[in-house]
Structure formats: structure tokens, C-alpha cells
Amino acid sequence: MVVGAMNDEVDSEKTAAKAETGSSAPRSREPRSAAPADDRARAGAMEVVVSHNIEKAMKILKRKLIKEGLFKELKARKYYEKPSERRKRKEKESRKKQRKEEARLRKGPGLM
Predict the structure, then answer these.
(1) Are 25 and 18 in contact, with CB atoms under 8 Å apart?
(2) pLDDT tens, residue by residue, 73-83
(3) Which of 17, 29, 71, 85 has the fewest CB neighbours in a 10 Å radius?
(4) What span, in angstroms and rounded, lies between the C-alpha atoms of 96 and 77?
(5) CA-based torsion, 45, 70, 31, 43: positive or negative
(6) Are 11 and 19 in contact (CB under 8 A)?
(7) Cα–Cα distance measured from residue 54 to residue 97, given in angstroms and rounded to the nearest whole number
């Protein structure tokens, strides 16, 4: 990746500068969490590869984002939700999930 190559060059320049000036050189004011933030961003990265058909790639990406729950979360975060409302909503969702699971088991235990 190009970004990694640039970071490696910068790191090698810093180590060369430290070697010339000694270990008592002042430290730079770079954010300490730069590397972990990049790792977190890469961990959550989603990849969709479809050649020559952008519409199909967009449909696949949208389907993946819906399945992951991104749109639901964005909609929920649009407005402030009081803790009591959040608790009620979570209980309602868990009851709904339990009812769906029981209905699925009543329909047929082998079907999932």
C-alpha cells in the first residue's frame, strides 16, 4: 500500500535523524494513536469486487451494509434516545427475536 510505504520512509528518516543527534533529541508531537486507528479502520473495511458493473457493486455493498446493521444504527443515532427509551426498545427487540425463534422451531426444527 502506498500509505505504508510513505510511513516506512518517514520512520526511516526519523531513525536516521535520531542516530545523528543522539537519543536525547526531543520527541515529535505526533498522535500516539495513529497506528492503532489505521488498524481499526482496516479491520472494519468492507470490500466489494465486481468488474465493469457499478450498479451491481452498489447493490452488493448496500446489501452488506444492511446486513451489518449500519443503516439501522445511523437512523437510531440521528436523534437522541433517552436511556429509558433505549432499555424499552432493547427489551422489545429481544422479545421479538425470541418470538421469531420460537416460531421457527414450531415450523420445523431442521429448517433454518
Answers:
(1) yes
(2) 999 999 999 99
(3) 29
(4) 21
(5) negative
(6) no
(7) 35
pTM: 0.43
Distance CA 92, CA 71 (A): 19
Q: What is d(CA 57, CA 46) in angstroms, rounded to the nearest whole number? A: 12
* pLDDT given for residue 46 in this prediction: 72
Neighbouring C-beta atoms of residue 41, cutoff 10 Å? 9
CA dist., res. 73 & res. 65, Å (int) = 11
Q: Are 50 and 60 in contact (CB under 8 A)?
A: yes
From residue 75, alpha-carbon distances to 33, 64, 92 in Å are 29, 17, 17
